[in-house]
Amino acid sequence: MKPVQLTLICHGQTEAQRVGRFALDDDPLRELPAPMAGLSTGAHCLSAPELRALQTAQGLGLQATVDERLRDCDSGRWQGLALKQLQHDDLAGLQAWFADPQSAPHGGESVAALCSRVAHWLDSGLAAGEWLVITHPFVIRAAMLHALAAPLDAFQRIDVQPLAQVRLSHSTQWRLQLPS
Does the record's keyword annotation contain Manganese (predicted)? Predict the structure, then answer.
């Protein structure tokens, strides 16, 4: 049986990432990325629906199909707010969100709900072959946790930089692939 080869690519940098605030759906990239060497031209390509993911696909020269299941975590009423502001205005909520994956003090999606959504997507049966997916740091973190069967509290211990690539493969189970 031919395996699934999945490369998750984080969208390019936004101003929200640079200044440490929760993103808005229509946050643009600071600049379009250049095409990356080594990306398979014959791969199936999917993108999260937000502008920053679509612009990344465009800059990389990829024709991506939007998959709503790859959308960023819903940060509810924290959308657009800086972490520094939340440390002042909602410190207890921010601390709860960092400490408890089930917590959603912002009224949006909890880390646990995001991880469940991403795990379901991964296990929904991507066709065998190569896949490129343009998505968000939180979605990539969730995919890594699922592939490694790691506990949810490990979510806050992973940093995913703009344009980072994470490779997963699946034949009988998900595996994280480190570059050689």
Answer: no
